[in-house]
Amino acid sequence: MSLPTVRIDEDRLWQSLMTMAEIGATPGGGVCRIALTDVDREARDLFSTWCRDAGLDLRIDRMGNIIGRRTGRDPDAPAVVTGSHLDTQPLGGRFDGVYGVLAGLEVMRALNDAGIETQAPLEVIDWTDEEGVRFAAGVVASGVYAGRFDLEYGLNLPDRAGETTFARELARIGYDGEAPCGGYPVDAFFEAHIEQGPILEQEGVPIGAVMGAQGQRCYAVTVTGEEGHAGTLPMALRRDAMVGASRMIDGLYRLAFDVTPPPVITTGYVSVRPNSRNTVPGQVVFSIDIRHPDNAVLADVCARAEALCRAAAAELGVDVAIEESSRRDSIAFDADCVDVVRTAADGLGLACRDIYSGAGHDACNLARTVPTGMIFVPCKGGISHNEREDALPADLAAGCQVLLEAMVARAGLA
Ligand SMILES: [Zn+2]
Fold it and tell me: Could you state, in order of their start, the residue ranges of all structural domains in the chain?
């Protein structure tokens, strides 16, 4: 590409990550920085200072998103935007979210050092409350920005304890900004993030060009048989809800291996009634979580899952009720943005593979209205939402360099 050599600074990026990780550091080596707490405010203050030091124009929008803007030769051109989140899970790690924010900042710093002016403005954003730990839902602030939710809905969200609201907590920590949340022209959005899964590390590939996020459907399954005495009820006369549920769960597991490319299917919740050692179980309720990147395949897998549960119930003489508890369609990222990421990795001689996100991200909201791409980098053992979350400085730097190339490719050189 025609971009002069602009190298991001691996050490500066790593040092910034480690400095930020001290805010809310846990004894186990992780980070607890829950949205709109005092610790979140501390992290926001530090990020804001770093943005000002980098000469960025800083603004806070109505949802408390912090936006650092580096103007371009054409200040009215639609901005090329990057960002992620500084908030974490209660026992979170040092990289989930914060990497994407500080990689964006490092892009700005590196362009400053090289004296590069872009045609379009660049922005780096800390999205408020991605994790959804305290309030009713996550990724709401990026959702308001992208027009998925009303501003009033976002501001009035109650916390889980029912003691306060999103708006009140924003005001309390001094981040109830005045800038409009979204509603201005954006050319593209890129989010750099650790993969939070094992694929890149296992394959030794440093860059994932994220194609989109998989769809998800969840079910609550109730299997009803009849309770009976474990010693006296002959096997042939039993209607054992536990055996019914077991056969269904095993069938679901096998189904996942019977589809290409495979879905992921999980039963993580089971409740048994009466849950007594010497009573034949009368009722079992269990969860099914099915995810796949292709909505049509997902629908087909879900239909097969339902059918196999009904077949197992009929075979064992138990009843089954299957209720869909939630549904989220898959999201395809913008083909050009995905290609910009691939091209950037190629140009840097970095191996790159297409990958789907198993998790939700702010980028999934942005993708509804803005051409969007994501850059994944490996994390150790695929571990995330965990204090042991870890990543290599060189991998983080590679992802940041790809982010820089992708943003400049989109924004153009002045
Ligand atoms: Zn994240």
Answer: 10-213+330-411, 215-328
